[in-house]
């Protein structure tokens, strides 16, 4: 008789790995949501800055104001991009910390389940080896009796 393919130890290990994967995926989705919000804010900031620069350009009354407004048009979003980079670094730092903490929280259970599964495999292999040796012994005895 063959042992069941999915034993309680294997099922436990699978369940723990699914929980770990689900939690890590949740952290990744939270990071993606934060990144999406950050990208939307960058877009809003750039549109606002370009709009303000365009208004200054249109409201220019002399050549110096026009030159200043025009040069601002050439490098739009410098402040917005610097702010974006700072927030992006903070977002990824939090994401890294969150994922590391999540993994560290789950690792003891993963190790225990893997150890239990390995012990079960060893026990099953020992039992099957003993049965095979017993069958081989019976076969050899029966073979010797025939001769």
Please tell me about this protein's structure.
The protein has 147 residues and is an all-alpha fold. The chain has a domain at 9-106. The chain contains 3 helices and no strands. The chain has helices at residues 8-58, 63-74, 78-146.
The share of residues in helices is over 70%
What are the secondary-structure elements, in order, as H or E? HHH
Low-pLDDT windows of residues: none
Overall form: rod-shaped
Q: Which sheet architecture does the biggest sheet show?
A: none
Key terms:
mainly alpha; 3 helices; single chain; 147 residues
Q: Can you lay out the helices and strands and say which pair or pack?
A:
Blueprint: H1 8-58, H2 63-74, H3 78-146
Helix pairs in contact: 1-2, 1-3
Task: Summarize, please.
This protein has a domain at 9-106. The protein contains three helices and no strands. Helix content is 90%, strand content 0%.
């Amino acid at each position: 008789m063959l042992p069941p393919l999915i034993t309680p130890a294997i099922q436990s290990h699978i369940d723990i790995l699914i929980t770990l994967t689900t939690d890590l995926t949740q952290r990744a989705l939270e990071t993606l949501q934060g990144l999406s919000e950050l990208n939307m804010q960058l877009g809003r900031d750039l549109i606002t800055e370009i709009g303000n620069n365009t208004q200054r350009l249109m409201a220019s009354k002399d050549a110096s104001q026009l030159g200043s407004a025009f040069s601002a048009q050439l490098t739009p979003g410098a402040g917005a991009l610097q702010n974006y980079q700072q927030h992006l670094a903070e977002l990824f730092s939090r994401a890294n910390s969150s994922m590391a903490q999540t993994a560290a929280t789950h690792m003891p259970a993963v190790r225990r389940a893997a150890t239990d599964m390995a012990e079960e495999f060893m026990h099953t292999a020992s039992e099957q080896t003993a049965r095979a040796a017993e069958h081989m012994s019976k076969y050899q005895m029966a073979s010797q009796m025939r001769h």
